[in-house]
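Training component of the fellowship. As part of building independent skills, the fellow (R.M.) carried out the full modelling exercise for a liganded target. The chosen ligand was pyridoxal-5'-phosphate. The inputs are recorded below so that the supervisory panel can assess the work.
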Amino acid sequence: MYQSFIPPKRLLMGPGPTMVHPRVLEAASRQTIGHLDPAFTGLMEETKSLLKYAFQTENSMTMPVSAPGSAGMEMCFANLVEPGDTAIVCINGVFGDRMKENVERSGGHAIVVEDSWGKPVSIDKVKQALEQHPETKLVAFVHAETSTGALSDAKALTELAHQHHALVIVDAVTSLAGVPLMVDEWQLDAVYSGSQKCLSGMPGLSPVTFGENALDKIRARGTRVQSWFLDLNLVMGYWSSDGGRSYHHTAPVNAIYSLHEALLMLHEEGIENSWARHRENHLLLVEGLEAMGLEMLVPAASQLPQLNAVKIPDGVDDVAVRNRLLQDFDLEIGAGLGELAGKVWRIGLMGESSRPENVEFCLSALRQVIDGGSITAAA
Ligand SMILES: *Cc1c(COP(=O)(O)O)cnc(C)c1O
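Fellow's submitted model of the complex:
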């Protein structure tokens, strides 16, 4: 017969989702209330305010989209790209490719600036592209490329875009809470993230924030946003604080309870402390990996602390190692994606998963599996 699902006990050290703290899980299990109940409205306000803290912004248009990070991405592109707009899209991994798709599906014209996987976005190449395409309305880039572990300079890219009168769309899905992300100080125009990476919430929500210049562009649109669900004007009517909250969709009530708790925990820790913790555990991991003779994909200067891509040594069987880690150690690490498939492992140290004891456990498990034989590739 069918039975309730009991998940296996795992330690999640991949590209997300991460471990979720019992407080966050418990919050989700509390009784559901109506999404227009004044008590829930109060929770929505507090969630927005905690999100502003996480994003380091005063933007009033800051809220969680009721869907995963990919929906936050679509919301940014669907609202900010108008048919015929030129957008420069920086591609240095999997997620840049998706941004290009989004520009094109919104009727825009994408100019691609490519960097090799593992490198940050090149400021010089973006500068050249902006000079060659003065009609550019938007520059889109991934702050923290989860597919490679490379961090790009969001502040410098945004300054450059603004000098050329273009707005920026920033993918901060993996960067939020893991590395400094200063939405107001760096004047980022439109930013989206995810609940299940360094925030360590349950998967399924996408925090977004929009600055005044982005809102002006959206207000000045000559065409309707093609997506009804992601039309910012309609969604904001639901999340607005000025009394007129009206039914748009039913918020995932319990998921918001849990996001609120995760954000509360971030606030209690202090965001600077969260950044520092991610960095310390990353240094511990890299030291241990290098002591094993393994090599990181990304040079130290642009390594992400929360996502560590390490090269798989010659002759070692990628799939066999990951299977043994899962079966014998209940440990999940990430596989390489796209052109890095079979070439790297991606060890995540995000949010709750970023703890020194997890680093030690992962290093010890890897040592045992690699030294234990039977994982070398078949000749
Ligand atoms: C995970 C991720 C996404 C997509 O988020 P989902 O919640 O899986 O939809 C987008 N961009 C980056 C950089 C990511 O790491």
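The panel noted the following from the submitted structure. The domain at 22-267 is CATH 3.40.640.10 (Aspartate Aminotransferase; domain 2). Residues 16, 68-70, 95, 142, 146, 171, 173-174, 194 surround pyridoxal-5'-phosphate (CB under 6 Å).
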